[in-house]
Amino acid sequence: MPPRCELTRPTQAKPAHHTASAPRSSKPASKAAAKPASTAKPASTKTAPVAADKPVSAKAAPPASRKGRGAAASAAAPAEATIPENGDVELANGIDIKEKEPKINGSTPAPAPTANGTARGKRGRLDELTSEAKDSKKPRRSSLASVRSVRGTPMSLPIPQAPAPADPHNALFIFGTGDMGQFGLGPDELDEIKRPKLHSW
Amino acid sequence: MVSHLRPRGSASHLGVADRRFEEQIEDGKLSRDGKPGSGGLEAVAAGGMHNLVIDEAGKVWSWGINDNASLGRITSDVPDPENPGSMIDNEKLESVPFVVGDLEAEGFRAVSVDAGDSVSVAVSDKGALRAWGSFRVS
After folding, report:
1. Measuring CA to CA, how many Å separate B92 from each of B64, B77, B96?
2. Residue B35: which domain range?
3. Which of A180, A188, A168, A169 is nearest to B1 (CA)?
4. Would you say the pTM of this structure is higher than 0.80?
5. Is residue B58 part of a domain?
6. Do residues B75 and B11 both lie within one domain?
7. Which of B2, B89, B129, B130 to mutate to test the interface with A (most CBs of A within 10 A)?
8. Which residue of A100, B39, B69, B87 has the lowest C-beta tally within 10 Å?
């Protein structure tokens, strides 16, 4: 058994290249050995011919393989595809996608529709996030621009005008604490005035 | 505390029902020369420990504590013109209203004043702004 395996393995690798030059005796040996050995590999080799046969036979096949690939590696491939599409900042890619990927994988028991839905959902959410980020940036820029424009333009405030003389004239009342001369009544009147009192103006 | 108001209506505006306020106003005791219409106040501002008013001639008067130069005038070592060789009492200079001399010297016709803790500002009829005192946090 082991010598056969040793013989078959090199014949497996070679026959693909030397099938035409190899003798006929080696071909059946390689075929016989290739069949059992091909059970390990054929997963990749069979899918290739199947995929090659299906597109010729039916057009619905490739989406099935895509769905299978999408179901297997839906987390990696679409995420990598959506990020460069949006192409935006580390904030959207770094934080939100990492938070959403486990939710999408964990929340999608159904295979195909959820895969498409999650891809669209990711794009939609990323678009929303990017739009929000852009929107949040825009007002800042606009506010800065408005400040700059305000700085650039001269201020135009109305100049206050002196009021017309009041007749009778305005009166001044004082009350409260005046221990530090706040009343303006002189150094002798520093006591507290509890009720409004006319100033001796 | 300083407030001013038009002497119209009754004193109940102040929460005080006392007729003698109205009588004093009608008598014109608040004018500078004791005659009605000879000069009242246009504006008043109360600061932390000082007050400002604008008379009808546009002059700024100040009194109170002169901390951080909030009064805008010198209140120490001022010679008394009536008594040569003597100085005016510091307490009198602070506790009695006096005109802010620098503004008057430059012809600053004030139309608006305001006061903070130790800061004072005034705006003229030409839109010029003058500020004095200090704006430090106490």
Report:
1. 10, 12, 6
2. 1-39
3. A180
4. no
5. yes
6. no
7. B2
8. B87
